[in-house]
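A.,

Following up on our hallway conversation. Structure tokens first:
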């Protein structure tokens, strides 16, 4: 299960850039752009780490941090601060923040700081045995799932192993080749169609509309992706904005999400 990161930043371009790059690093990312929304998201999303801008509307980052600690929410925080605002850094560290980084910052430096904070706070993050999404659940220990109708079904060892790979890479694409290498030996000679059949079975179990899946997605020519309901609904307008953003930033490629 990937670490969950909440990014709180009111500069839209930076927020989108951080989300995209953190997801490429296989983190599960949610975002918000105001202090008021941040307090709600912290409680509902329950992140492992928060990237918290100090200069925010409604409540600033220092106020949010204070409210978190007053409510005994001990989630580690990395403050994003303005380059010349030394006082904010001092105040944040006095309050007990885990780290800070000044804007503009180098992405590699931020990723290293995130990794260090996570290692300090979660040295041995336990392996999950049960994963729940919506009304459904997967038990990796018993090889059983609860489908969207509430029925308990037994799955094969390989089906559970495929679900584990997809859940461990939540909201990130897993290539066909990676799945084939992990689940089959070279002597078995499976085809990508074999994986497609498993995905179709997962859709029968977990999707409300198998023809328009929101959890088990196929990325044409690349692989597969598992999404949770909190971020699985993506409309065409979002894709248009994302495409324009990536083109403006000279990103190389955008994979369109298409059903099998």
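Then the amino acids I'd put at each of the 260 positions:
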């Amino acid at each position: 299960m990937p670490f969950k990161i909440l990014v709180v930043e009111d500069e839209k371009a930076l927020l989108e850039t951080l989300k995209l790059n953190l997801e490429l690093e296989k983190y599960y990312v949610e975002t918000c752009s105001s202090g008021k929304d941040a307090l709600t998201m912290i409680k509902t999303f329950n992140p492992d780490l928060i990237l918290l801008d100090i200069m925010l509307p409604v409540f600033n980052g220092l106020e949010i941090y204070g409210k978190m600690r007053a409510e005994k929410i001990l989630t580690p925080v990395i403050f994003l601060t303005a380059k010349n605002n030394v006082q904010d850094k001092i105040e944040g560290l006095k309050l007990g923040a885990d780290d800070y980084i000044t804007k503009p910052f180098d992405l590699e430096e931020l990723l290293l700081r995130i990794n260090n904070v996570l290692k300090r706070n979660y040295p041995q993050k336990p392996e999950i045995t049960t994963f729940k999404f919506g009304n459904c659940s997967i038990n990796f220990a018993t090889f059983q799932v609860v489908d969207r109708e509430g029925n308990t079904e037994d799955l094969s060892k390989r089906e559970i192993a495929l679900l584990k790979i997809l859940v461990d890479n939540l909201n990130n694409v897993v290539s066909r080749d990676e799945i084939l290498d992990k689940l089959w030996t070279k002597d078995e000679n499976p085809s990508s169609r074999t994986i497609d059949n498993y995905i179709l079975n997962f859709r029968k179990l977990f999707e409300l509309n198998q023809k328009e899946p929101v959890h088990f997605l196929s990325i044409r020519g690349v692989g597969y992706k598992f999404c949770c309901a909190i971020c699985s609904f993506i409309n065409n307008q979002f894709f248009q904005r994302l495409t324009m953003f990536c083109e403006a930033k000279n990103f190389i490629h955008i994979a369109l999400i298409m059903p099998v």
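The CA atoms of residues 63 and 82 lie 16 Å apart. Curious whether your intuition agrees with the design.

B.
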